[in-house]
């Protein structure tokens, strides 16, 4: 059997490159490819420590490393045996804030020994920060008693932090953890780190909505962002995150004052560590990630968390990101009638959306399961011609789950309630719903992250099980993400955020505070199932801010189809080629973000409480030439031409915002119901457009037609438009779904039949199925 060190040496090349590694006895310093970031490791006196500098200054000062495993300490009496080094580059596809993750790093694997047991510290040093993890030989055992890793930021830094929520609201309905487990549905704020800080008045308000937060000051969620002291008048930022959390617990931070943060591996009151067993063949920690950035844009777009995860293997062409109608909150948390699902599916069809969610209580459509399944299958059959796919909800520990996927122990063990996923029940459920035509699952009430086999590992197990059925996955009631979607691209969203459903934040002051804080904190971990609203202009901006490849929109059918911004809602993508956090953004005060997809830019601006008007410098993201801008404010919708040299000025009061679409091309309609011919407007005379109605690429397809007049879209189709410059190079590409609806059509007949009938009655459901069968 290979030891941990021997294994590491096989994986990394021998041979030091002096520009990347500086060596002394018991000390090694590894530099980033650009030489600006340095990771200094030491085991002087047998105590392993590390230090991270950026541009010559300590941003994460000297702090300890190590564990107690199987009753043996591996943070004292440690010796450095050997170091293996390598240079690596990463390029990974991503559904989310960028199309491709690209980065490079210098790697050092430190081979260590303590108590006769070999173990390694793997450090990756990027231009954007550091990622490190520890791996122990199997001889150490699999029971982790404590992890002593800590993080020390300069005392005059500020933390962008949340205390989480572990109150009664997560436990009273026999759904969640039933002990002091943490919940990520909590607000963030800005704090000086010199002293131990306490929740702000704003956070107390949010915690009261979530029924309290016992011992809140002791726990800080990861990610936690950091605003370092200014250097030469320029701000610098960073964040403490976890990446590749597998076979090990998720952790949070315990603040000690003076900028020092230790790890917690439990959320139990009065405790910092509780023993747990890893599920791999040996103890391997997640990557501890320490990012650095000169701007909020660089902080948000940091690639490290994604890069530490293994790439996907296999064909994922079947995965389709998209927007979804969502009834749970906008319909009063009652979706237990099939006619409700037809109403929301009708909205999805009219908006050109890809999905509709059958959320909680869908399993109560009828008194018996065969009738429920019959109703669901009929809905799938009816929406399939319009390419609206149905997603179903289920939960592991939820009271309204008719098909429970697991159960919990009745008694606590060492203060922890154990969970027991029913893997056979999951596979049976997935097999049954696939036969009905279901295309994805929203899995809720996941066990907490301070458990391994029945907690953290469950996410990967569900991802693998869903992949066999070609289901997309949305984890709800979940821990924060750590890059699982890199390995399993069909995992299109995580909750683990204080979103619309539980925050009760229709009040503008609360909502704008959440959006100007969470995207730079919890949002650093990746996808977030916030479920944005579209009832006002800052709600339209939310569509730009959310990192949600599967985006469930919190709105009634009328709020979607009758919105003054209906064309923006239909046009806005859910995955992006690149993202820019604009320099006028200020944490907790004002947020401006631009995202680009296939040559078109979407701008979202949200003002929480900045008094002065803020101009948006379009030069931060636009290229050369003239663009068409469609601007959506609470005062109305307007269109005009803009250039990169222009500044966009919109007067905003507190708790307001706006959105815009800026491109070389505009359509008179961005998908939805077939109607008037679709006009294509180009920003410059030197541009030309081609289009197809069969979904093929207009740049290469034999069916492509040059645009000369408004396009007659008279039948259900996918319209694609490609715009090229005078050299033939593409500058923008659009693709939108159009659906033909007629008064005598099958779908319209189904919706009309349901009006005025009470589908809570079993007889009505049976009569409906008989009616559809006859049709």
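-> sequence recovered:
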């Amino acid at each position: 059997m290979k030891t941990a060190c021997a294994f590491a040496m096989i994986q990394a090349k021998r041979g030091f490159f002096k520009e990347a590694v500086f060596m002394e006895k018991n000390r090694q310093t590894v530099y980033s490819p650009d030489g600006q970031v340095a990771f200094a490791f030491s085991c002087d006196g047998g105590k392993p420590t590390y230090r991270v500098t950026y541009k010559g200054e300590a941003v994460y000062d000297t702090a300890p490393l190590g564990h107690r495993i199987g009753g043996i300490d591996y943070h004292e009496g440690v010796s450095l045996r050997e170091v293996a080094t390598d240079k690596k580059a990463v390029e990974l596809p991503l559904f989310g804030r960028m199309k491709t993750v690209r980065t490079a790093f210098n790697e050092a694997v430190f081979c260590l020994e303590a108590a006769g047991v070999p173990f390694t510290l793997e450090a990756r040093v990027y231009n954007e920060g550091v990622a490190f993890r520890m791996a122990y030989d199997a001889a150490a055992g699999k029971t982790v008693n404590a992890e002593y890793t800590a993080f020390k930021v300069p005392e005059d830094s500020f933390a962008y932090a949340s205390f989480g929520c572990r109150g009664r609201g997560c436990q009273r309905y026999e759904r969640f953890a039933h002990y002091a487990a943490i919940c990520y549905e909590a607000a963030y704020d800005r704090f000086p780190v010199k002293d131990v800080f306490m929740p702000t008045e704003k956070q107390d308000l949010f915690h009261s909505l979530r029924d309290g937060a016992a011992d809140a000051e002791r726990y800080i969620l990861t990610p936690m962002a950091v605003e370092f002291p200014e250097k030469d008048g320029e701000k610098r930022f960073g964040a403490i995150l976890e990446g590749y959390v597998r076979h090990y617990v998720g952790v949070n931070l315990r603040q000690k004052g003076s900028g020092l943060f230790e790890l917690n591996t439990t959320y139990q009151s009065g405790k910092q560590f509780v023993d747990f067993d890893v599920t791999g063949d040996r103890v391997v920690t997640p990557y501890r990630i320490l990012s650095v950035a000169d701007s909020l844009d660089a902080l948000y777009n940091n690639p490290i968390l994604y890069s530490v995860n293994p790439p996907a293997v296999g064909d994922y062409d079947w995965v389709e990101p998209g927007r979804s109608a969502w009834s749970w909150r906008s319909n009063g948390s009652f979706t237990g009638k099939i006619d409700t699902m037809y109403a929301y599916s009708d909205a999805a069809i009219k908006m050109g959306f890809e999905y509709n969610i059958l959320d909680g209580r869908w399993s109560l459509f009828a008194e018996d399961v065969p009738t429920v399944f019959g109703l669901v299958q009929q809905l799938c059959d009816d929406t399939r011609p319009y390419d609206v796919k149905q997603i179903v909800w289920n939960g592991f520990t939820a009271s309204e789950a008719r098909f429970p996927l697991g159960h919990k122990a009745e008694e606590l063990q060492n203060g922890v309630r154990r969970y027991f996923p029913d893997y056979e029940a999951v596979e049976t459920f997935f097999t049954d719903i696939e036969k009905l035509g279901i295309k994805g699952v929203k899995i809720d009430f996941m066990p907490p992250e301070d458990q391994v086999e029945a907690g953290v590992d469950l996410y990967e197990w569900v991802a693998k099980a869903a992949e066999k059925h070609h289901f997309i996955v949305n984890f709800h009631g979940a821990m924060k993400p750590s890059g699982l979607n890199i390995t399993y691209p069909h995992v299109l969203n995580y909750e683990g955020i204080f979103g619309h459903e539980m925050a009760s934040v229709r009040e503008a002051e609360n909502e704008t505070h959440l959006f100007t804080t969470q995207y730079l904190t919890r949002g650093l971990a990746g996808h977030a199932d916030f479920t944005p609203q579209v009832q006002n202009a800052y709600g339209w901006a939310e569509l730009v801010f959310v990192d949600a490849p599967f985006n469930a929109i919190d709105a009634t059918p009328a709020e979607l189809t009758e919105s003054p911004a209906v064309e923006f809602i239909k046009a806005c993508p859910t995955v992006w080629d690149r993202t820019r956090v604009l320099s006028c953004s200020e944490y907790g005060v004002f947020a401006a973000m631009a995202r680009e997809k296939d040559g078109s830019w979407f701008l979202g601006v949200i003002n929480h409480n900045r008094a002065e008007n803020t101009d948006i410098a379009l030069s931060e993201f636009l290229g050369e030439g003239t663009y068409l801008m469609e601007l959506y404010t609470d005062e109305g919708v307007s269109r005009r031409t803009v250039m990169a040299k222009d500044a966009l000025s919109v007067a905003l009061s507190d708790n307001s915002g706006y959105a815009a679409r800026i491109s070389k091309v505009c359509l008179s309609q961005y998908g939805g119901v077939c109607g008037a011919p679709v006009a294509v407007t180009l920003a410059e005379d030197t541009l030309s457009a081609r289009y197809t109605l069969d979904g093929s690429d207009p740049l290469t397809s034999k069916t492509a037609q040059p645009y000369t007049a408004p396009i007659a879209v008279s039948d259900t189709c996918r319209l694609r438009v490609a715009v090229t410059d005078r050299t033939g190079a593409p500058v923008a590409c659009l693709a939108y779904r159009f659906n033909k609806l007629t008064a005598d059509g099958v779908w319209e007949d189904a919706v009309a039949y349901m009006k005025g009938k009470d589908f809570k009655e079993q007889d009505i459901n049976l009569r409906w199925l008989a009616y559809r069968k006859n049709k």
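Residues 452-468 form the longest helix (17 residues).
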